[in-house]
Write a structure and sequence with these properties.
alpha+beta, Immunoglobulin-like, TIM Barrel, ten-stranded antiparallel sheet, nine-stranded parallel sheet, 31% strand, binds ligand MIG, glycosidase, Glyco_hydro_31_C, Glyco_hydro_b, Glycoside hydrolase family 31 protein, Glyco_hydro_31_N_dom
């Protein structure tokens, strides 16, 4: 019997069929068997233990747990026995201090915190969530239900919610489709999707978290289940939203808003945020499949420096290895990697290398030998090794769900780290296997002691690989920050890695998708994300490449990459006109580096997503629900990238409040659309009035120049606005011991004055002493400057860009610029 026959997949049924429970599975072992769909019956009683309430229908049990004031978890145990608590996404379910009450009425039970109430209907076991104004935000359409899985044991589990006509949906990670996912159906099953198309599903990642907006209130559902999960957002029926899984527990978190930002921050409180990346990782990265031999890499580096195009990292794709054996070098191409990496570093380039999970079956290869001896490779149900063909040929695959294997894997990087490698790129970790796509379902995994087949471990495999990589590098780097990038991942992967969106295509539609995917990843918990600039497959022309570089400046992670069978793809590959514009925009990335870095801090420390879609900025504006072609980076800079060839102007909507055009400094009114010119050497960028935007002097790579001064662009505002500025060593973990500085600026003006206040916390002392502050948009000609109570003698004339430039000590508390 072939593999496929013995482990049939459940065919895809419509929600209606599933609701009715009439379908049959044609099972080759037991024949045609009716699937019995079992629904919860009436509640017969409850018990309470600490923050958890257990409701029973006499057989099944449902746990309602108050996790925090705004988060409530629901779990279902079909026969009353819950699975052991374990989650790769939520490593530690912290019980936050909460005040909650419990009430029983004739019809229902009510578990209530200060912000949210969970109601359990006694008669039909329907569960709903209300806000503290007694508005129903989310409620079951039908009771939670399940079907026995005759092949594997366990259950297919289902939850169907009501969906109102105005409800819109966001999240789910990397789906390459419209930003609002209402009307669509998806699967989460990590898949290698070379040259993926719009609407293709699933892709590389599995992020079972979505956000709904109903009646202007945002809420989130995090369905923490690593099996294949399915989501239907009013696709099958306009009045239903469903999610279900091919196994595991029906376990989900209801996360209350009311703002989308609250939901995302609370999702981060469960699954964690990205650690601070090394600052160089926020520079421009150049990648290609592949740069080799050494002379090629060296001339690439030289080109960047000769042409004065900033760049921080160069990548080695699979050809640097000896026969694609991980942790080895092809000595023909790279005879002395240590020397080469050192020379590149002396010139300001970090070297990042790719590492795949497939280990070549080769008894003369130390990694294979060790893994075999220690029994670290995955096995099939009957104990055969899981073997599959990937780049090295026949391979076996470490079981990264085993903590001992992860530990071992981490140590394998020692050689590369000694050679000077600064970052590791994990690819093919869905896991991808040539021919079959991935592992068969019967492969066994240790699953951190909780055991499971590949059905359970598939979606977390890549995340556990990059976790092993990150943790291993962290040990080897001592106190330096590792840089990792992964293709696959499950919720929580952000704790270990950045992510790129995989093998996209050089087309204008993919440029648009790139912007949507990054925004979507950002609101789905993965802020450090980027796309292959230029498109991985296919050939961009100069215009498309340049527009993609422009988007890339405002992607949290900025890397150009291309497939091996494409023409050269560097910022200068399309002729001088494009090269000059590409340089100008990459330079912009470097000038904005301190702003970008501060946005990372806001993400790491407070759980703010780095990219913020329009609906997150103003969720009460109906048109924003479907606006997907503009966003802000951090909370101060709004970008409206150009997505059409030959486009000379574009309508840009600015949220309420006041804005400035980044290039011309022209003030602009928010709350409406503006027609903005979009010549190729420009791109619509706007800054919120009242912002204090830090800028670095131009550098060719992070750390090239010792800062003597920081510049700030200060945008006048007549209402009070706060800005944050963060700095630290840039590459150590000292920030965890409060060795950082977080500065807060407050700007407030009126017709005759502009006042800037600064306060600061943290223990880091930068070496520079002064600031240069450029005041933009002052509505008056100033004649008096007072810093910390003392009048200053500085010229207050407008410069050619209508700015007033002020010098101040970095520790100033208050600056008054007066008419
Ligand atoms: O089977 O390492 O998505 O970025 O260049 C292809 C070669 C394997 C797929 C990755 C791509 C990478 C390529 N890899």
């Amino acid at each position: 019997m072939t593999e496929k026959e013995s482990f049939p997949e459940l065919p895809e049924f419509s929600i209606e069929q599933l609701e009715e429970g009439v379908q049959h599975v044609n099972n080759p072992i037991i024949g045609l068997k009716p699937i019995e769909k079992v629904y919860l019956q009436s509640v017969v009683g409850y018990t309470q233990q600490d923050n958890s309430f257990y409701f029973s229908d006499g057989s099944a049990s449902v746990e309602i747990r108050v996790v925090s004031d705004e988060i409530i978890r629901v779990r279902l145990a079909p026969h009353g026995t819950f699975l052991e608590e374990f989650s790769y996404a939520v490593p530690k379910l912290e019980q936050r201090a909460t005040v909650f009450s419990f009430k029983e009425s004739e019809e229902s039970y009510r578990v209530e915190t200060n912000t949210v109430a969970c109601l359990i209907d006694k008669k039909d076991f329907l569960i709903s969530f209300e806000d503290n104004n007694k508005r129903v935000i989310n409620s079951d359409f039908s009771t939670m239900h399940w079907e026995e899985n005759v092949d594997f044991g366990g259950y297919y589990v289902y939850c169907t919610k009501r969906c109102s006509p105005d409800e819109s949906f966001y999240g789910l990670g990397d789906k390459p489709t419209s930003f609002n996912i209402r009307g669509r159906r998806f699967q989460n099953w990590a898949t290698d999707t070379y040259s993926f198309a719009r609407d293709q599903d699933p892709l590389y990642r599995a992020i079972p978290f979505y956000i709904g907006i109903k009646d202007d209130v945002s809420y989130g559902i995090f369905f923490d289940n690593s099996y294949k999960t399915h989501f239907d957002f009013a696709h099958q029926d306009a009045d239903k939203t469903s999610f279900w899984a091919d196994g595991g527990e029906l376990q989900y978190y209801y996360i209350h808003g009311p703002h989308m930002m609250d939901v995302v921050k609370r999702y981060h409180s469960l699954t964690g945020t990205h650690p601070m990346p090394p600052q160089w990782a926020l520079g421009y990265h150049q990648c290609r499949w592949s740069y080799y031999p050494e002379s090629k890499l060296k001339s690439l580096a030289k080109n960047f420096r000769d042409r004065k195009i900033p760049c921080d990292a160069l990548y080695l794709d699979i050809d640097y290895m000896d026969g694609y054996r991980c942790f080895t070098w092809n000595k023909k191409y790279f005879p002395d990697p240590k020397k080469m990496i050192k020379e590149l570093l002396d010139d300001g380039f970090r070297t990042v290398v790719i590492i795949d999970p497939g280990i070549k079956v080769d008894d003369n290869y130390w990694v294979f030998k060790e893994g075999k001896e220690k029994k670290y490779f995955c096995r099939r149900s009957d104990d055969y090794f899981m073997e599959g063909h990937v780049w090295p040929g026949r391979c076996q695959f470490p079981d990264y769900t085993n903590p001992e294997v992860r530990e071992w894997w981490g140590t394998l990087f020692k050689g590369l780290v000694d050679d000077g490698v600064a970052g590791v790129w994990n690819d093919m970790n869905e896991p991808a296997v040539f021919g079959s796509g991935s592992f068969p379902n019967d492969v066994r995994h240790q699953y951190d002691g909780h055991r499971g087949s590949h059905r359970k471990a598939h979606n977390v495999y890549g995340m556990q690989m990059v976790r092993a990589t990150y943790d291993g590098l962290k040990k080897l780097f001592k106190n330096k920050r590792p840089f990792t990038i992964t293709r696959s991942g499950y919720s929580g992967v952000q704790r270990y890695s950045s992510v790129w969106t995989g093998d996209n295509l050089a087309s204008w539609d993919h440029l648009k998708l790139a912007s949507i995917q990054c925004q979507r990843l950002s609101v789905s918990g993965i802020s450090m994300c980027g796309t292959d600039i230029g498109g991985f497959t296919g050939e961009p022309d100069g215009e498309l490449f340049t527009r993609w570089i422009q988007l890339g400046v405002f992607s949290p992670f900025m890397r150009a990459h291309s497939a091996g069978d494409t023409r050269e793809r560097e910022p200068w590959s399309f002729g001088k006109e494009y090269e000059d514009i590409n340089r100008k925009f990459i330079e912009l990335r470097y000038r904005l580096m301190p702003y970008i870095y501060s946005a990372y801090w806001e993400h790491h420390k407070y759980g703010f997503p780095i990219l913020r879609p329009m609906v997150m900025l103003e969720q009460d504006v109906p048109l924003n629900r479907n606006r997907e072609d503009e966003f802000t980076f951090g909370d101060k800079i709004l970008i409206s990238p150009v997505f059409e060839p030959g486009q000379t102007s574009k309508m840009v909507y600015l949220p309420k409040g006041r804005w400035f055009d980044y290039w011309s400094h022209e003030p602009m009114e928010g709350g409406r659309e503006h027609d903005v010119l979009t010549p190729l050497d420009s791109m619509p960028i706007f800054v919120k009035a009242g912002s204090v935007i830090p800028e670095w002097p131009l550098m060719q790579y992070v750390g090239e120049i010792d800062l003597e001064e920081i510049k700030f662009q200060i945008y006048y505002s007549d209402y009070e606005v706060n800005s944050f500025y963060y700095e630290d060593h840039g590459d150590t973990f000292a920030y965890e011991q409060d060795i950082y500085t977080e500065k807060k600026f407050v700007v407030k003006g009126d017709a005759g004055s502009c006042i800037i206040r600064q306060s600061s916390e943290g223990l880091y002392t930068p070496r520079y002493e002064t600031y240069e502050l450029k005041l933009i948009g002052l509505p008056f000609q100033p004649s008096k400057l007072i810093i910390d109570g003392k009048e200053q003698q500085q010229s207050l004339n407008f410069d050619e860009l209508k700015r007033v430039v002020v010098k101040a000590n970095k520790n100033f508390k208050e600056i008054q610029v007066l008419r």
